[in-house]
C-alpha cells in the first residue's frame, strides 16, 4: 500500500467517526426530548383528571328551586377541602375576579402527586383554582364553573389544564 492510500483511509475513518458521533448525539437528544414530552404529558393527564374531579364536586353542590319556587343554593360548603364540608366555605358563591390567576382563599386547593389534598402549597404537586360566574342570560339560575390545574412549581399559565361546566337550577 502506498503512503497516499494510507492517508486517505485515515481521512475516511475520521469522517466516518464524526458521522457516527453526530448521529449518536442526535439520537441521545431525541431520547431526552421524548422523556421530557412524556413527563409533561403525564403531568397534563393528572391535571386534567384533577380538574374534572373538582368540576364535578362543584356541580354536585345544591343549586335548585324547591317545590315552592324558592331558589336554593349551597353558598357555604367548604370546597377548598376534599371532600367538601358543610359550612365554613363559599360553595357556589360568585367568585371575585382573578381566582384563576392567583391563590384566592375559598377558590383554591392544593393536591399531592398522589391526588391527596393538602392544606398548603408545602408538599403540593398541583394547584387547583376555580371561578364561579353567573351566566348573563340567566344570572340567578345558571353559573359557569371554570377549573384550572397547574403544577405547583409552575408560574406559567400555559402549563395549566382548564375545564369548564355549567350548573343550572333544577327542581327538587
Please write out the topology.
Layout: H1 3-59, E1 63-65, E2 71-73, E3 108-111, E4 117-118, E5 126-134, E6 142-151, E7 161-168, E8 170-171
Parallel strand pairs: 1-8
Antiparallel strand pairs: 1-2, 3-4, 3-5, 5-6, 6-7
The first-to-last residue Cα distance is 99 Å
**What's the number of structural domains?**
1
The ordered string of helix (H) and strand (E) elements is HEEEEEEEE
Summed over residues and divided by their number, the pLDDT gives a mean of 85
Radius of gyration: 27 Å
- Major β-sheet profile: 5 strands, antiparallel
Spatial strand arrangement across the major sheet: 4-3-5-6-7
Tell me what portion of residues adopts beta-strand conformation.
Answer: 15-25%
The total strand number stands at 8
Global morphology: elongated
Kindly describe this structure.
Helix content is 33%, strand content 24%. The strands form two sheets. A five-stranded antiparallel beta sheet has the order 4-3-5-6-7. The protein is elongated, with a radius of gyration of 27 Å. It has one domain (33-171). With 172 residues, the protein is of the alpha+beta class. The mean pLDDT is 85. The longest helix has 57 residues, at 3-59. The protein contains one helix and eight strands; from the N terminus they run αββββββββ.
Short description:
Helices cover 33% and strands 24% of the residues.
Amino acid at each position: 500500500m502506498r503512503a497516499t492510500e494510507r492517508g486517505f483511509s485515515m481521512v475516511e475513518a475520521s469522517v466516518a467517526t464524526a458521522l457516527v458521533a453526530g448521529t449518536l448525539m442526535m439520537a441521545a437528544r431525541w431520547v431526552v426530548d421524548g422523556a421530557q414530552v412524556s413527563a409533561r404529558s403525564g403531568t397534563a393527564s393528572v391535571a386534567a383528571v384533577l380538574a374534572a374531579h373538582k368540576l364535578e364536586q362543584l356541580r354536585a353542590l345544591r343549586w335548585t328551586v324547591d317545590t315552592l319556587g324558592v331558589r336554593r343554593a349551597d353558598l357555604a360548603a367548604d370546597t377548598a377541602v376534599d371532600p367538601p364540608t358543610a359550612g365554613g366555605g363559599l360553595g357556589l358563591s360568585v367568585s371575585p375576579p382573578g381566582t384563576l390567576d392567583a391563590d384566592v382563599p375559598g377558590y383554591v386547593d392544593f393536591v399531592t402527586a398522589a391526588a391527596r389534598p393538602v392544606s398548603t402549597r408545602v408538599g403540593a404537586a398541583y394547584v387547583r383554582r376555580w371561578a364561579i360566574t353567573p351566566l348573563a342570560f340567566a344570572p340567578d339560575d345558571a353559573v359557569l364553573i371554570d377549573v384550572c390545574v397547574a403544577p405547583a412549581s409552575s408560574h406559567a399559565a400555559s402549563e395549566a389544564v382548564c375545564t369548564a361546566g355549567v350548573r343550572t337550577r333544577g327542581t327538587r
